[in-house]
Design goal:
Elements lengths: L2 E4 L2 E5 L3 H8 L4 E3 L3 E7 L7 E6 L7 H22 L4 E7 L8 H20 L6 H9 L5
Parallel strand pairs: 2-5, 5-6
Antiparallel strand pairs: 1-2, 3-4, 4-6
Helix pairs in contact: 2-3, 3-4
Length: 142
C-alpha cells in the first residue's frame, strides 16, 4: 500500500471493497452538509490511520465527482496528521453540497467530526472532554 507521510504521521488509503463494507456496518457516523464520516476502530494497536473516499453519481458528473474527491484529499492531508487517531479507519462519503461549500467550512466540519470521533474512541463523556483531552491526544500514553 502507498503510504502518505505528513509530519511523520502514517496515513494509508483504503483500497479494498471489503474494507469499505466492513466500515459501512459500523454505527459510528458523523453527518455534515458536505460529507458523511464513518469510523471503525481496528484491533491492531500499532496500525496507522486509514482513510477512504466515496463519491457516488448522485454528486454529479465525472468532473464534479473528481473535484469532490480532490477537495476531500486536501482536507484529509491538512487535518488528519493532527486529529486522526492511529488504528482507526475513516470513510468520507461526499454529498452534493461538497461542490458548493467553501473550503474553510468543510475544514471546520471535518475537524469537528474528527474531534467527536476521538472523544468517542477515548470513552470520554461530553462534560469531561477538556479534563481528559491530553490523554486522548496521544493514544500511546496510558
Amino acid at each position: 500500500m502507498r503510504s502518505l507521510r505528513v509530519s511523520d504521521f502514517p496515513l494509508e488509503r483504503l483500497r479494498k471493497r471489503a474494507d469499505f463494507l466492513k466500515i459501512a456496518k459500523t454505527t459510528e457516523r458523523t453527518i455534515t452538509p458536505a460529507f458523511i464520516m464513518q469510523v471503525h476502530r481496528t484491533a491492531a494497536a500499532g496500525s496507522p490511520a486509514r482513510y477512504g473516499i466515496t463519491v457516488s453519481r448522485k454528486v454529479g458528473s465525472a468532473v464534479a465527482r473528481n473535484r469532490g474527491k480532490r477537495r476531500l484529499r486536501v482536507l484529509i492531508r491538512e487535518t488528519f496528521p493532527t486529529l486522526a487517531v492511529p488504528g482507526v479507519d475513516y470513510v468520507l462519503i461526499a454529498r452534493k453540497e461538497i461542490l458548493r461549500r467553501t473550503f474553510a467550512e468543510m475544514k471546520k466540519e471535518l475537524e469537528r467530526a474528527l474531534l467527536k470521533a476521538r472523544s468517542q474512541s477515548c470513552g470520554v463523556a461530553e462534560n469531561q472532554k477538556r479534563k481528559n483531552e491530553t490523554k486522548c491526544l496521544n493514544p500511546q500514553t496510558p
